[in-house]
Design goal:
Residues 1-26 form the signal peptide. Helices cover 43% and strands 18% of the residues. By secondary structure, it is an alpha/beta fold.
């Protein structure tokens, strides 16, 4: 005789099984390698941060293998979309930079919502920016640079590493702060942009210390200012003023990196990941590696999920205004 079960009768059983399975999953986590999606190419500044973080992170999770998946393209939106579609089990995470707060304004059509489709896990670091110029530019300080920019009837050639890149965002903010319209030249990455700056094909570039410190130290470029409220430490930057003290009041641009999981990842797993993140940020080797890159490891409340999400929401509003004013976005 065939047995019949109603959906209503099975529902409590299914819920009970799920309730038992979720804690067991969390208790065993991690039981296999973890993949961190980085939505930028290998060898770039975000990839470097991710690989350094992965080394410190895995040690906090029993030396589990942590694999970096570089899924680059479309200003990071390809990799972010891939992370949003991943199974919410804690085995696929996303590590990305400030682009998490700018792609909603830069791209009109996205398959994901950065605020609704992710679990926020914490900010990892902050990376200052530097305003640099080709070595042959005659201005020797920011005051002279401002005068030179005002004299350029054909415009100033301002390079960047592509739509949504850190240098693109800093360039937008710089143009807004100086009320100037520059000739923006996007490249397919930081390396070709710096190569053309060194060769004199472009005039200015505003990029991360992770990309510019070696060039400044070798006197291969002219450094006019840093974008942080306070001057940077270290021999390389001891004579480099801030843009704020150079006359651009309240100018402050740093490129931060954060960690995310797909929406629906069990809370117990999220707690384990956040605990491991906080411990990794106190790893002396990781701290030193970041210092060597000119980056500062996060130590404030943004290492907590709620504060991380609130911070990104504020950044979305901030950059949305700048990007809308510039009218620079993709279809």
């Amino acid at each position: 005789m065939a047995l019949k079960f109603s959906t209503a009768a099975l529902l409590p059983v299914c819920m009970a099984v799920m309730a038992i399975a979720t804690p067991a999953q969390a208790q065993d986590y991690p039981a296999k390698p973890i993949t961190i999606i980085v939505p930028f190419t290998a060898g770039g500044p975000t990839d470097k941060v991710a690989r350094d973080f992965a080394e410190a992170f895995r040690k906090q999770l029993g030396n589990v293998s942590v694999v970096i998946d570089n899924s680059a393209g479309a200003g990071s939106s390809i990799g972010v979309a891939k992370a949003a579609r991943a199974a919410p089990d804690g085995y696929t995470l996303l590590l990305t930079h400030i682009g998490m707060s700018t792609i909603p304004s830069l791209y009109r059509k996205l398959s994901f919502n950065v605020q609704d489709d992710f679990e926020y896990l914490g900010i990892i670091n902050d990376v200052p920016m530097t305003l640099i110029a080709r070595p042959t530019l005659e201005a020797n300080n920011y005051s002279e640079l401002a005068t030179w920019m005002a004299s350029q009837k054909n415009g100033v050639n301002l390079g960047n590493a592509g739509l949504g890149s850190a240098s693109h965002l800093c360039g937008l903010m710089f143009q807004d702060a100086t009320n100037t319209q520059m000739v923006t030249i996007p490249y397919g990455g930081t390396a070709p942009a710096i190569a053309d700056l060194l060769g004199g094909q472009i005039d200015l570039l505003c990029d991360q210390t992770t990309n510019t410190t070696a060039q400044i130290a070798g006197k291969k470029v002219k450094a006019y200012a840093v974008t942080t409220p306070e001057r940077l430490e270290g021999e390389v930057y001891k004579d480099v003023p801030t843009l704020a003290e150079s006359g651009l009041k309240d100018f402050n641009v740093t490129i931060w990196h954060g960690l995310y999981a797909p929406k629906g990842t069990p809370q117990a797993v999220l707690t384990k990941v956040n605990d491991a993140l906080k411990a990794a940020l106190q790893d002396p080797e990781f701290i030193q590696r970041q210092k060597d890159l000119g980056a500062v490891v996060a130590s404030d409340n943004r290492v907590n999920p709620a504060e991380h999400k609130a911070f990104v929401a504020a950044e979305i509003d901030k950059w949305g205004t700048v990007i809308k004013a510039a009218g620079q976005y993709a279809d």
